[in-house]
Design brief:
By secondary structure, this protein is of the alpha/beta class. Helix content is about 45%, strand content about 10%. Helix 12 links the parallel strand 7 and strand 8.
């Protein structure tokens, strides 16, 4: 893109005053036109190529110890080892609640991209969008306007999940129970309902049984929670056996983690004894900063068994994908963000296959 600089004489100013160039080219101006070399002169071309080669040779070479070179090498390794790879299917349906009461840590992004990666690898996946904003539904290309049957109907009216789920248009094997704006009022409406904390759990159990009865067993259920610890999140905790926590590599994310763990322990004590933190994923990781490394080291020190080796970097492609109604897995499958989520999904699946009945706690 071309343009003019706002500052006089700037590099982009098309009307800039002449520089010292005429002085350096003065001898050429005194040569008669017939004596000047033509555009196709072999000598001139050779001199130009030699000059360019000399300039190129003078540029320092890249060191494999530089962050950029390491990132390129790491992406190449992931692309070779992970692309087209299938994952082991669990012995029984795994229900994971993706939760963190802090906003902006990548809950929805992690939910839809891990789900998409698992589906690409041959698993059958259900995404339940419990966030009234409906961002997970948007990313998966699912209609979620107010007239669409949604999770609200399941929680408040007792509608079956099988009547609500919609297939993802880009990924066979992936279905989504969308969220509509009606879900914003569900927190208040649930207060007066009987068994308000277990309504989602009963709906999920019935849907899983329905899939088994039809010969199409569901491998994973991923529940995307709102950034709060209200009744919607409580329903998600009661419905799941595992908690999947995305943690942004910044200090504030660590502050919120302790409160989240306390709430999980309360759910374990009173409503769901099988609930445990099985997976922690470090998101928005920037290897160029000391802070990201420090947060990652601290999380791995305290939750070594739960923290995935994979980390998700900051990525423009990850942010762009929802605007096209896609996950980054289909929008740009060769990007660093897609490869990182694919690596995380493979690790998640392999851990579950190795320990299908694990009772790890935080």
């Amino acid at each position: 893109m071309t343009g003019t600089s706002d500052s006089p004489g700037g590099a982009g100013d098309g009307s800039a005053a002449p520089t010292s160039e005429p002085e350096t080219t003065a001898p050429a101006d005194t040569t008669s036109p017939e004596d000047r070399p033509t555009a196709g002169s072999t000598d001139d071309d050779t001199d130009d190529h030699e000059e360019r080669a000399a300039i190129a040779a003078s540029i320092p070479g890249a060191d494999w110890n530089t962050p950029l070179a390491q990132a390129v090498a790491e992406d190449a390794r992931k692309r070779i080892t992970l692309t087209g790879r299938s994952v082991p299917r669990p012995a029984q349906t795994r229900v994971l609640t993706v939760a963190n009461q802090k906003g902006g840590v990548g809950k929805t992004t992690t939910t839809v991209n891990v789900a998409a990666a698992l589906a690409q690898a041959g698993s059958t996946v259900l995404v339940i969008d419990l966030d009234p904003q409906g961002n997970a539904s948007t990313a998966l290309g699912i209609d979620h306007h107010s007239e669409v049957p949604s999770v609200y109907d399941v929680l408040v009216d007792g509608r079956a999940l099988a009547e609500v789920v919609q297939p993802c248009p880009d990924l066979p094997g992936l279905v989504c129970a969308p969220a509509t704006i009606d879900l914003a009022g569900a927190e208040i409406e649930l207060v007066s309902l009987v068994a308000r904390e277990t309504r989602l759990q009963k709906a999920v159990a019935a849907y899983v049984a329905h899939r088994v009865a039809t010969g199409d067993q569901l491998d994973y259920v991923l529940v995307d929670c709102p950034p709060s610890l209200g009744l919607l999140t409580v329903n998600a905790f009661v419905a799941a056996n595992e908690v999947f926590i995305p943690i942004q590599c910044e200090y504030y994310a660590l502050e919120g983690l302790s409160q989240l763990l306390k709430n999980i322990e309360l759910i374990r004590s009173h409503l769901n004894p099988s609930l445990h933190v099985s997976t922690i994923l470090l998101t928005m990781y920037d290897g160029r900063t000391r802070l990201s490394a420090q947060v990652a080291d601290e999380v791995r020190e305290h939750f070594s068994a739960q923290t995935l080796r994979a980390t998700v970097p900051r990525s423009v492609r990850i942010s762009e994908a929802p605007s096209h109604g896609q996950t980054v897995m289909t929008y740009d499958p060769n990007s660093s963000g897609a490869l990182s989520y694919l690596e995380a999904a493979v690790e998640l699946a392999e851990r579950g296959a190795a320990r299908p009945t694990s009772e790890e706690t935080a």
